[in-house]
Amino acid sequence: MDKRAVLDAAAASAEERMLLGRVWDKYDFCRLKNLPSATAFLSPQEQSAARRLLQTLGAEEGFCFFGGYEGAERCRLFFLPDWAWEPEEGSICCLRCTWYQKGSLTHRDLLGSLMGMGLKRESVGDILVGEDSADVLVSDTVADHLLQSWDAAGRTPLRVTEVPTDHIHIPQVKTKLIRDTVSSLRLDSVVSSGFALSRGKAAEAIAAGKVQLNWAVCTKAAAEVAQGDTISLRGLGKCCVEEVGNQTKKGRIFVSIKRYL
Questions:
Q1: What is the pLDDT along the chain (261 residues), one digit of tens a residue?
Q2: DSSP 82
Q3: What is the location of CATH 3.30.1370.160 in the chain?
Q4: Which of 43, 16, 65, 75 is nearest to 238 (CA)?
Q5: Which of 43, 94, 141, 260 is 20 to 30 A from 121 (CA-CA)?
């Protein structure tokens, strides 16, 4: 298999090509050395690209995506030799940050603080923020450094301790269920319903590359959407098509869309 040709065909950009090259290197290391290997944390879009590559390579088993807890958005891709059943314990660490003033810190504040310490985004997984604490999933390679050095986010003092991943505090996600009818399951029609936009505004956002369908940028307004698909719109968040129902007498289609607030 011509590695260069495969990467050129699989990648949507030069940056994604570099990412997929690193994924392939980890895959080869595990396969040839029969030892575990893992990528850094991947965004949902990067996970989607990695899955496409693995499908091209014919890899159907011996790997898993895991972000420290079930349902994590940002995950590491673990390649497992035939003697391993799951990722090595401690490969993802959970750091609990606590502060005194309720509601004083946001996801952006904490992530900005970490980036200000020189960390790369790929070293940090999900940041689960509560009123006076946050659980931050990080790679094992940076956990000790953060435990020793991360003592503030902006002007807010932090107390940082490590907790087992089975004690993670997962905040309740606020959502809104939208029940509507759409003229078709075209992407522009579903985006219009899910984000309360006109059909024209939805089409403009899609053409501008602001919309992702299942974590991949989609610029085709006529792209078909199915039950279970996730749609994100830059600046407005994301929604998920929970259910596609029957047609009305006028030919419109019932849909239930979960909008994340």
A1: 789 899 988 888 899 999 999 999 999 999 999 999 999 999 999 999 999 999 999 999 999 999 999 999 999 999 999 999 999 999 999 999 999 887 789 999 999 999 999 999 999 999 999 988 999 999 999 999 999 999 999 999 999 999 999 999 998 888 999 999 999 999 999 999 999 999 999 999 999 999 999 988 899 999 999 999 999 999 999 999 999 999 999 999 999 999 998
A2: T
A3: 3-79
A4: 43
A5: 260
Burial level of 201, CB count in 10 A (0-12/13-18/19+)? middle
Cβ atoms within 10 Å of 33's Cβ, excluding its own: 10
Domain 92-167 CATH superfamily: RRM (RNA recognition motif) domain (3.30.70.330)
> Which residue intervals of the chain bear CATH 3.10.290.10?
175-260
- Is residue 223 within 8 Å of 187, Cβ to Cβ? yes
Q: Which fold has domain 3-79?
A: Ribosomal Protein S8; Chain: A, domain 1 (3.30.1370)
Distance CA 72, CA 237 (A): 17
* Rounded distance between C-alpha atoms, residue 66 and residue 71, angstroms: 9
Fold for domain 175-260?
3.10.290
Burial of 26 (0-12, 13-18, 19+ CB in 10 A): buried
| Cα–Cα distance measured from residue 150 to residue 157, given in angstroms and rounded to the nearest whole number | 9
